[in-house]
Amino acid sequence: MNNIVENINVENFIKMDFSREIYKLKKEKNCVILSHFYQTADIQNIADFVGDSLQLSQIAADTQADIILFCGVNFMAETAKVLSPDKKVLLPEPNAGCSLADSCNANDLKEFLKNYPDHTVVSYVNTSVEVKAMTDICCTSSNAVKIIESLPKDEKIVFLPDRNLGSYIKSITKRENMIVWDGACHVHEEFSVEKIIELKKNYPNAKVLAHPECKKTVLILADKIGSTAALLEFSKKDDCKEFIVATESGILHQMQLASPQKTFIPAPPIDSTCGCNDCKYMKMITLEKVYNTLKNEAPEVIIDADLIEKAKKSILRMLEMSK
Ligand code: 13P
Ligand code: SF4
Fold first, then answer.
1. Residue 42: domain span
2. pLDDT by residue (tens digit) across 46-67?
3. Is 149 inside a domain boundary?
4. Can you give the pTM of this predicted structure?
5. 53: Cβ below 6 Å to ligand 1?
């Protein structure tokens, strides 16, 4: 028993040490650490900014830092590099991918778009840089509706890669001419409608917060649908004291910090043993990897200059419209 307690203390000490070293190194190297809301609490706690994908790309575009260390997944770090090509962008785990981005491969998209030559391609930011290079305008879950509504009513649109976000936007904007790619995220597809209804019996006053990447059957149960930042904001302002949260579990950290008196319950996945509330890619980032990455200034995100130029237009168009 004593040994176990001692081990826990050592582990805590090492973690504290990493945080302190990271803090020193980031000052020395003029580095900004960006963390998505889905990172673990210890990563969020050492970051300079914690935000949703739109907020983080806005910061990446404007930062004066020499180094951007991205605690998130590959497409987010790539977006930062496209927006700040002269800066060194570091991603502590190069295998931190995204099942949704992977569901739309650039070669498959090229073939697919041959069927829709007169369509405007609107891509969710959860896509590879190669897909962004084939995109007319990017969007995130914060601004997708606004971006689609900015296009003429009769515009022919291909929306990709998320079928759930796509069908949600289609239902709001009433776009008839919108083709939606058939991709999905392994975390958001897994929430169980039956288990959320069951949970509501134990928490009858709880409000359901859902990310638009969830299936339509889950979104129907939601009191608030929005991006991670929008859900966080709602949980702060709403009078309700209990929330069932249908998005990746990392967001609960900021919700609980902002409203310690409220209760946040992660929405249960269909298979309770799968650990699906956690994005396995987001959770690949650890304090130790952040420390080593900052110390060695590697792994670095490298993208061909031509590809950067091609992908940049669609992201800049989105940022311009989000002001
Ligand atoms: P946000 O745009 O809400 O940050 O979401 C990104 C994401 O990966 C959702 O799964
Ligand atoms: Fe991608 Fe889903 Fe993870 Fe978001 S939660 S980064 S969409 S795999």
1. 10-96+283-302
2. 999 999 999 999 999 999 999 9
3. yes
4. 0.93
5. yes
